[in-house]
Every structure is written in C-alpha cells, then in structure tokens.
Amino acid sequence: MNRVVCPLAALVVASSVLSLPAFACGGCFVPPSDTTAPILQNAERILFVRDQKTKKSTAWVEIRYNGPAAGFGWVLPLPKEPKVGVGTTYLFDRLHLATAPRFIVDSAPSEGCSSARSDSGACGSMSDAATVGFATSAPKNANELDPANPAIKILQHDQVGPYDFVVISGKTADDILKWLNDNGYATPAKAKATLQDHVSQGHVFVAVKLANGKGVDEIKPISLEMDDAEPCVPLRLTAIAAVDDMAVQVFVAGPGRAIPKNHLHVQVNPARLDWLHGSGNYAQVAAAAIDEAAGRAFITEFAGIVPKTVRETVTTEEFSSSVETAFLDYTSIDLTKLKSAEQLCQAVEVLKAQKFPITKETAAILETHLKIGSAQGIIDPLFVYGEKWACPATAQNQPFNTKNLVEQLTKEFVKPLQDMGPILTAAPKLTRLLLRISPAEMTKDPVFAFSKELPDVSRESKATVNPVCRKPDFNVDAFRLTLPGLNRSWVVDSTLNATVPPGGFQALPNTATDPRFKTAPAALVVELLDETGPAKPINKEDIDKVDLAIAGAHWGQLQVPKDMVLKVAEKRWAMPVSDAVFSNSTNSSGSSCSLEAVVPASGRGALRISLILFAVFASVWTVRRRS
Q1: How far apart are alpha carbons 177 and 152 in whole angstroms?
Q2: Where are the domains positioned within the chain?
Q3: C-alpha separations of 32 from 157, 180, 616 in Å
Q4: CA triplet 587, 588, 589: central angle to 5 degrees?
Q5: Which pLDDT does position 566 carry in this prediction?
Q6: Strands 149-160 and 163-170
Q7: 106, 463 contact by CB (below 8 A)
Q8: Cβ atoms of residues 417 and 370 within 8 Å
C-alpha cells in the first residue's frame, strides 16, 4: 500500500520579494524570545521524484527565511521516519529555467497604415536562472525517550548541513505541543487539532533549527527520502504562519502527468493577461483564477518529458545573449583537478575552467575555505568568485586546505546532483503546478497522482500584435491582439492605460484593461482531473460541492461519489467576436519579430523582459499621412 509523503517546510521571504517561487511546506514557529516578530511563510517550492527501480520517493523542499538565525524553526509531519539530507538551490533553479511559463508576442504587419516602414530590430529574451543538491546523514540516538518528556520518543537527533534536526513521535497532540514549546518552537495552541490528526495517523515530526554559529545565508533545501510514497503537501500546518496569497510551486516527476486528486484544476484566461507588458500581471490573474475555484485549485504550468536543455542568458560587459545549455549536467562535474591545486587563485581558476557552477552557495563554500573576499572586505562571495573573477595579488600565492574544500563541495553539491540527477532525468514525465492560497483556504493537504491519458502542457503561451490605423490619417491609434488559443482577434485602443514597458520605446496599452476583458473570469476553465479519462469541466454552481466531495481523495480512489449528480458545465465566458480588419491602404507592410517574458523565480525581484521587439514598431507608430 502506498504511503502519503507530506513534506512540510517553512518558507519566509522579505515582503518586497515577488512571489513565484521559494518553497516548502510545514509550520514555521517563532521562538518564545521573539514573539513580537511573527515569522510568516509566503512561498513554497517542492520537488517530488519517485525512483521507478527502487520504489523510493524523495522530496526536496526549498526553504527561504528573512528573520534572525535564532528565530528559525521549522516543523514538518511525515507518515514515517525519513532519511534527512540537505542540498543546494541549483536544481530548483534549473527546473525553473526549464519549465517557467513563457509569454511570447510575435509582431505582424501593420493594419490600415499606408507606407508603414519597419526597420529590422534585434529580438531577444531574458529569463532568470539559479541553483540543488542532496546529502544524507546517519541518525544518532535512535529510539530514545526524551528524559525531559518521556511521552516523546526521539527517533533521530543529528546535524546535517547547517541544521540541527530531531525526528520525534508521540501518542498525543498535547505531548508534541509541549515538546515543541519546551524546545524553542513557539507552537500556537491552534495547531493542536492539526497535530492531533497527524498523531492519530501515526505520523512522525521533523523539527529543524539552524546549528549554533550558522547564519540565515547558509539555509539550504532539505531532502527527505522514504519508501514508495504518494506526493502530498501538508498545507494545514502551514496555515499557522502563512501570508495571504502564498505561492506553492510543486514539481512532480513520475510515470505520467501529475494531477491534484483532492484539489480542483483551472486554466488561466489568456485575455486577462497584459500581453504588451510581458504578461506581468500573470501572478494576479492566476490567483484570481484559483479563487474562482473555491480558492483550492492548481494550475499546470508545464507537463511533458524532462527537458534535456534550458535556455539561459549570458551577460557580458558588452551585451547579453541567450544560449542553450544542458538542463542538468551532473556527469561532467569532476573535482579531480581541484585536488592538485596548491594556491587559492589556482583553485578558482581550475573550477571555472571546468565550468563548475559558481552560485551563491558554491561561492559561499569557496569563501569559507579561501577567504579571498573577507581579506578584501567584500561581503558578497558571489561577487568575488563570479563571472568577473579577478584574483587579487595578495592571494595569488596563498596556500589552503585542498582536501577540506573538495570534501565539502562533494558532499553539499556534487553528490546531491549525482544522486538525484539520474532519477529525475529518467522519469517519463515532469509536471510543474502552481497554487496560490491564503491561510483560511488551507483546509486540506494537496495530494497528487499520475495520468497517462491527459495531454502535455506547453510552457509557452503565444499572442500576435500588430499596429492598427483606424482613421484615414494613417496614424497608429490601436493595436490588434490575436490569441491563437482562443481563435479570436481584438483591436485595443493605444491609449488604454498606456505605459512604456522596461526597455521599450513608446507607451503601449494594457490589453487586460479593455472593457471586454477586465470583467471576464480569470479562469477560462474550472475542471476536475483524474488518473483516467479526460478533464471534467465543473459548473459554477457545483464548484463548492465538488471541492468538499474530493477533500479525502487519494490516488487510485474515486474522487466524486457515484451517486453525486453534477450539472453540465456552463460556458464560463461568452468571448466577444473578433474585430473587423481595418484597411486604409493596400500598401501596409511590416516585419516579424518576437518578445518573450518569463515568469521570474521567487526572490528574483521584478519580471525581466526583453522588449527590443518594439523597436521594430518605432517607425510605424510615428507614421503620418503621406504628403
């Protein structure tokens, strides 16, 4: 019988950080000494991978936190005792690069604009990238009773990476609650009911803190390996310390497309996106679409084979360019040559010559051993060891302990990738799902299953835009937005909430604020997915009933009772008919180019978009009537 794996991690990020990625699931509790500064989780990012050969399931949970080191406390319930490990963020960042939604806008010839001229322009795209690993630790003090609280059994007590962790079990929620509070996890009384539910199912609890002397900049993802398991995200405990509209990003690798069993599924209405500004309102539209499905629904942002390559941006002092690189090149990492390095600068040069990933975390490891940055008074290790690396004269002949550096890089970066890489890349399908949810809506823990019948989901959404001259004066006064997926084409006034996008040359309208679209439902479809058969659209009046009926669903089980009668799903939106083509002249012309926007990783700041495309339109917008 399959078990449910519910890795629950606390994730806290600064309020200024945009959501979409940072991840985990669980409860983050403030120590009693710091109750005036509530610690809230505002995003989670989780990867579930099932090894088809060993039947082992591994969950990687990315944790982000913005408080003091002493205030970091993280508790997660699990169905059985796990093997606990740590890693880096590298894998999550590669997953993001490979699967993040892309909004591509193609240009088309101008419409109704006489002698419109179009200069050739450079088209480009920007995306963000980033950096995971895995290391395990043998448990200590297994199966001992806590002398301070005999009702608690300590299954493991050890240190892994920057963490001290304890795995405990107890017979009642009161026992667990008392132990957590006695050991610095200020667990609120309202958590008791959720804790009792986990205790009643025989679950264990993993409690994690930063080890003495470890800073918040050393926080790493946590990995949990268990026997054959059902992917699950225990949101109920997360609700204790979560922000409104929290982003939960789930990656699931397995035998088919991953689907939520006890949550609904929605498709975003593309007409609600602000296409000419890189669909920068995607997060808001996604949240609104989920709210239309009782606040408990997932969006599938990608489903397909595990990518072999990713496209990333390489920036130099002269220009930026987009290049294709291997999705997860874990086989080429070799630290053999590093073992022969005898000097600080030589060590870095060896790593960079081998194209070893220099990330925030690997740079921090280098700085721990080489201390080149601290010798120069530089705080950011990535600045010291990154792309603009220049070895200072004072460090060129300095020796260091090569063995210790190799051991740490191997344990915390190389081995994690080499352990997880083959399992992940061998999976038949990879699915990326998004949930945006507030604490009041966290009434059930999402459970996922696999469908081999549902179609793949492309990460790319496309639209076409062209300038329109609606009047005989041949001045551009509108833009036509064509959405192939909806088989519709509409003309939007050029002055409609127009602003100049980053990197743009002229103010462009916000297509989402067109009166025909701004009141349209954010969810084009609300549906129920199952392991077999096609998606089942849900009528608006049945959403709450279905949401309640599927609350206890698990894989291999019926979601909706056979005797439940559901209405035929209505058409959620009567799409406006396409607008007629304007033709003031037969001499319209133009060239084609593309704009691409990529949803940013959580914690990466604002959406970055390449808008060089609209240089192509620059001359068209200023066309005047021919003399």
Answers
A1: 11
A2: 311-420
A3: 22, 11, 59
A4: 115
A5: 86
A6: antiparallel
A7: yes
A8: no
| Range 508-534 burial, b when 16+ CB lie within 10 A, else e | bbbbbbbeebeebbbbbbbbbbbbeee
Intra-chain end-to-end CA distance of the chain, in Å: 81
Beta-carbon neighbour count of residue 38 at 10 Å? Answer: 12
**pLDDT tens track for 241-279:** 667 878 889 999 999 999 999 999 999 999 999 999 999
Q: With bands split at pLDDT 50, 70 and 90, how would you rate the model's confidence at 103?
A: very high
CB of 62 within 8 A of CB of 45?
A: yes
Asked if the model's pLDDT at residue 541 lies above 50, the reply is yes
Kindly report the length of the chain. 627
Mean pLDDT taken over the chain: 79
φ, ψ (nearest 5 deg) of residue 377: 75, 20
What residue has token string 């989901």?
457
Task: Give the CB-side neighbour count of residue 390, counting CA atoms within 13 A.
Answer: 4
For residue 22, the tally of other CB atoms under 10 A from its CB is 26
**pLDDT digit string (tens) for 286-318?**
999 999 999 999 999 999 999 999 887 766 656
Q: Which among 226, 254, 294 has a CA at the least distance from the CA of 449?
A: 254
Task: State the helix-helix crossing angle for 173-182 and 192-200, rounded to 10 degrees.
Answer: 120
For the CA atoms of 280, 284, 289, 295, what is the dihedral angle to 10 degrees?
150
Burial code of 63-102, b = ≥16 C-beta within 10 A, e = fewer?
Answer: bbbbbebebbbbbbbbbebbebbbbbbbbbbbbbbbbbbb
- Judged by phi (left if over 0) then psi (alpha if -120 to 50, else beta), residue 502 lies in beta
Beta-bridged to residue 95, according to DSSP, are none
* Per-residue pLDDT, 542: 94
The DSSP secondary structure of 582-596, one letter per residue, reads P-S-S-------EEE
* Helix 344-353, helix 360-370: angle, nearest 10: 160
Q: Which residue has the tokens 């699915």?
A: 431
Query: Around Cβ 490, how many Cβ atoms within 10 Å?
Result: 21
Gap between the Cα atoms of 147 and 143, Å rounded: 12
Whether 136 has a pLDDT exceeding 50, the answer reads no
Backbone angles phi, psi at 106, to 5 degrees: -95, 145
CA separation for the pair 432, 251 (Å, rounded): 5
Among 511, 501, 522, 500, which Cα is nearest to 466's?
511
Give CA–CA dist 397/502, Å, rounded. 45
**Pairwise CA distance, residues 116 & 619, whole Å:** 8
SS3 helix, strand, coil % of the chain, rounded to 5? 25, 30, 45
pLDDT (mean) for 580-608: 55
40 closest CA partner among 54, 26, 55? 26
The amino acid at 155: L
Q: How many CB atoms lie within 10 A of CB 309?
A: 14
pLDDT at site 285: 96
Residue 131 amino acid letter:
T
Q: How far is CA 165 from CA 12, 34, 71, 73, 341, in A?
A: 19, 20, 15, 10, 35
Nearest to 50 by CA among 431, 589, 334: 431
Give the Cα separation of 563 and 558 in Å (integer). Answer: 12
Q: Summarize pLDDT for 475-524 with one digit per residue, the tens.
A: 899 999 999 999 999 999 999 999 988 777 788 999 999 999 988 999 99
- Please provide residue 557's backbone torsions phi and psi, each rounded to the nearest 5 degrees: -115, 155
Question: Does pLDDT of 609 surpass 80?
Answer: no
